[in-house]
Write a structure and sequence with these properties.
10 helices, 0% strand, globular
């Protein structure tokens, strides 16, 4: 696996991605897409029934999730390896762990806004309905997330977050809707997720707390 675009050292990757430079983001996204596609097509026998188009879409989805997390965790990179190696391991570990099992496509913003009953979450691995206490905790967290989305995010950040993370719309499709570029949408999502994190911390929740409730 070789780097794409202009060769960069670790410091250049961190500086350019930290500044939101579109070319660096595009190069990293393509590098990861190729890496994940290779992983899915050559090292996952359980996906052998899927055709190339399906694997390419799955790779795109996984990169879409993982790229945002990589951008969030740039400050954790210690330089013990090449940056692209670190990013590669990050996205492959996410893929292997089936990160996307916890997508929130079924969440209804309208239900949360109207104070309706908590949606019936269908998480893979739940052999039975969640316990009442856990379901109530999930609903409480989702209601908090809704308030943060409504009050802390800009209109564009809110639209990007809801379309991609709640409605499952691919980044490339949303970019077309906004007459923008995928890189600009990734920047919107990155900023929106950072505001969500700050909003949760303001209410004394950490990412680990949220993951524990939805695991």
């Amino acid at each position: 696996m070789t780097d794409l675009g202009q060769p960069r050292n670790n410091e250049q990757w961190l500086a350019e991605l930290g500044q939101g430079q579109e070319q660096a983001l595009a190069d990293l996204r393509e590098y990861l897409r190729r890496a994940v596609f290779t992983y899915l097509s050559r090292h996952r026998e359980d996906l052998s029934q899927h055709d190339r188009g399906e694997l390419e879409q799955l790779a795109e989805d996984m990169v879409q999730d993982s790229l945002l997390q990589i951008l969030d965790k740039l400050d954790t990179f210690r330089g013990d390896s090449k940056f692209t190696t670190w990013a590669y391991r990050f996205v492959i570990n996410a893929a292997a762990g089936e990160l996307r099992l916890h997508r929130w496509r079924s969440v209804s913003i309208e239900v949360l806004a109207g104070g309706g009953e908590a949606p019936a979450f269908a998480f893979v691995g739940d052999e039975k309905a969640p316990e009442p206490e856990k379901l109530a905790a999930r609903h409480q967290i989702l209601a908090l997330l809704y308030r943060i989305i409504e009050h802390d995010l800009t209109d564009l950040q809110r639209r990007a977050l809801i379309r991609v993370h709640f409605q499952g719309v691919p980044v490339v499709v949303l970019a077309q809707e906004l007459d923008s570029t995928p890189n600009s949408v990734y920047k919107l999502l990155h900023d929106a997720r950072r505001k969500l994190k700050k909003g949760l911390e303001r209410e004394h929740y950490s990412e680990a707390d949220v993951l524990a409730i939805f695991s």
